[in-house]
Write a structure and sequence with these properties.
Blueprint (H helix, E strand, L loop, with lengths): L2 H13 L5 H34 L6 H47 L2 H6 L2 H43 L1 H8 L2 H35 L1
Helix pairs in contact: 2-3, 2-5, 3-5, 5-6, 5-7
């Protein structure tokens, strides 16, 4: 897909999320909260070793251990709420997308239906929309969550020791290149798969 068309498609999909901006904002806040909470436990472990075990401040043991137990529980509860709200947003967006697609088909001229095989139209309605649903409900939130975790982790690593962080990030361009190459191949394979599904649906409808 050309970059111009890809950008236009992304903007059109983002437009479906605009009616749900408050819910999306809550999901983003929940993602940031769980990402930050995930960084607290390693720091608490550091305090536990430095202050309680080495420094012999045993009066702080209950506090640190209690926080190490309570924070994951709180993070898990936030994650459950985030998943629930994310699925609600995704299903509403998919309903709006299907309604818009149906309305678009209703506006198409008769020539479109005579020149396009019925199986291809059915494949667009079922397989392509199903692929979009996976992105809307799962992939988008997963990418956002992983990005937030990566950024917060890098910041925490710099605060602990910037030299080790620089050494660790030295291999990052290599892995980013591998990810780009694999993603490019995967997009091509996905496109061919969707075309094959459309062809199979058309042949099935004709026979």
């Amino acid at each position: 897909m050309p970059k111009e068309r890809r950008g236009k498609t992304i903007r059109r999909i983002v437009a479906f999320f605009r009616p749900y901006r408050p819910q999306v904002a809550i999901v983003l806040v929940a993602i940031l909260a769980t990402s930050l909470i995930g960084l607290v436990n390693p720091y608490l472990l550091k305090l536990l070793i430095d202050e309680v075990i080495v420094g012999r401040h045993y009066e702080r043991l209950n506090l640190y251990v209690g926080l190490m137990i309570a924070l994951p529980i709180g993070s898990g509860l936030i994650g459950v709420g985030q998943s629930y709200l994310n699925n609600i947003i995704g299903q509403n967006v998919m309903q709006d997308l299907r309604n818009a697609l149906y309305a678009h088909l209703q506006r198409m001229p008769l020539r479109f239906f005579t020149e396009t095989r019925t199986g291809e139209i059915q494949s667009r309605l079922a397989n392509d929309v199903g692929g979009v649903q996976a992105v809307v409900t799962d992939t988008a939130s997963s990418v956002t969550s992983n990005l937030a975790i990566a950024i917060s982790t890098i910041v925490a690593m710099f605060l602990i020791d910037w030299r080790l962080t620089v050494m660790s990030l030295g291999l990052l361009p290599f892995f980013m290149y591998l990810t780009y190459r694999v993603g490019k191949v995967r997009r091509e394979v996905s496109g061919e798969t969707q075309k094959s599904l459309a062809e199979i649906s058309a042949l099935t409808e004709e026979t």
